[in-house]
Structure formats: C-alpha cells, structure tokens
Recover the amino acids of this structure.
C-alpha cells in the first residue's frame, strides 16, 4: 500500500513537473513571438520614418531646382524649358505606375506645376512682376481638385507649399517697394545688374524692410515647422517647400550683398 502511494505521488509529481515545463516553454515561445512581432513592426516604422524625411529633403531640393537649373535654361531656351514640363509629367506618371516609386512620382507631379509656371513666366513675362503670381497659380485648380479627390497628396501639398512661399516673397517685394528694381534688372545688361542689386539692398536694409523681413520669415518658419508634428509624408513635402523658401531668399540676399 505504501509502495502504491509513493508510486502515485511520484507519478503526480512528474506530471506537475511536465506541466510546469510546458508552461515555461509556452511562455518562452510567447516572448519570442512578441519579440519577433515587435521587430517586424518596428522595421516598417523605421523605413516609413526614413522615407518621410527623404520626402522632406526632396521637397527642399525641388524648390531650389527652378532657381539654379531652370533659370539658365529658360533665359536662353524658353521653349525647351516649357517642353520639359511634358517630360516631368510623363516621368511622374511612369514612377506612379509602380508601388515602390509611387511617392516619388507623386512628388514630381506637383513639381511639374511649379516648373510649368516658371517656364511660362521667366521665359516670356519676366519683365512685368505683376504677372508673376497669376502665372504661379496655374496649377492651383488642378491641385485643389486632386486634394478634393484625396489623390496625389504629396505632390499637390508640395505645390501648395511652394506657392505659399512664392506668395509671401512677392508680398515682401510689394511692401518694401522692390518691384521697380525687379523691372530694371530684367531689362538692363548684365554688367549693370550689380548696381541695381545694391540699390535694392539699400531698400531692404531700412527699418521698414528689416521689420517685414523678420515678420514674413517668422510666418514661414511657423507654417513650415508646425506640420512636421503630424508625421505624414504630404505634410513633410509641404513643410520642405515652405522652409526652403527661406533658403532661396537668403541665397538671393547673399547674391545682392556680394554684387
């Protein structure tokens, strides 16, 4: 009877040990599964965050392209610059046809509107600053229509950010009365341009010019930085376009100082 009791006790103890081992093994498996899931989830998140910042950097780059690339082309070959718009549109749709490159095609499509406006204005209308903003608005109906359809958000928000930067820059030119210098520099020979730039710089350096430069720079910084908290790619495209306006305007100011 004692032997039976001991054997029964040993069997039950073995059974309990087995169950404990199984439970411990199950917990380890669960921890491994959780670790695997966590790693698999963090990888797409890190890729997404990196891509978001790449969109921001690309937006900054695309705002500076018309200044340093399109401007030389459009002065000597305005028709070629205008024709390149069709190439940008074709390339953007080609990139959008593949999921891996869709976002870059989307961004490039918004850039196409800025390029088109630059080709038209700087090619044929640059002597009259009053035509600048109406031409820059050329892509606005399309952008608004696309956003109403919730399509092409990255590119269209980039275009809107670039347009906003252009508007504020032109507003500054109007407020500080720089438009006469704009007209002059578009009509004179290149050797006379430095003197006109120096005269315009004198106007900028007045208390009135400096005050409005600070005000509009703060507006651009605020409008450009706040959307970054939303951590969405189209807002980063918008912010990149807005903030790069400060960069481009600063480069123009440095060119005037160096003239």
């Amino acid at each position: 009877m004692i032997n039976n009791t001991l054997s029964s006790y040993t069997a039950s103890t073995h059974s309990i040990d087995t169950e404990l081992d199984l439970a411990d093994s199950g917990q380890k498996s669960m921890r491994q599964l959780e670790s695997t899931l966590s790693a698999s989830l963090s990888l797409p998140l890190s890729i997404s965050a990196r891509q978001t910042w790449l969109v921001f950097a690309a937006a900054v780059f695309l705002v500076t392209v018309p200044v340093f690339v399109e401007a030389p082309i459009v002065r000597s070959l305005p028709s070629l610059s205008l024709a390149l718009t069709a190439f940008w549109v074709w390339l953007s749709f080609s990139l959008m046809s593949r999921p891996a490159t869709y976002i870059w095609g989307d961004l490039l499509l918004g850039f196409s509107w800025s390029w088109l406006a630059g080709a038209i204005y700087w090619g044929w209308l640059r002597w009259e600053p009053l035509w600048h903003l109406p031409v820059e608005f050329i892509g606005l109906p399309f952008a608004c229509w696309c956003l109403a359809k919730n399509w092409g958000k990255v590119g269209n928000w980039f275009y809107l950010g670039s347009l906003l930067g252009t508007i504020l820059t032109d507003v500054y030119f109007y407020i500080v009365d720089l438009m006469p210098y704009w007209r002059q520099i578009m009509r004179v020979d290149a050797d006379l341009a430095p003197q006109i730039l120096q005269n315009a710089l004198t106007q900028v350096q007045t208390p009135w010019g400096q005050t409005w430069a600070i005000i509009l720079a703060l507006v651009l910084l605020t409008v450009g930085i706040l959307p970054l908290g939303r951590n969405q790619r189209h807002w980063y495209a918008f912010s990149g376009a807005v903030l790069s306006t400060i960069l481009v305007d600063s480069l123009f100011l440095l060119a005037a100082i160096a003239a």
In short: The two ends are 111 Å apart (CA to CA).
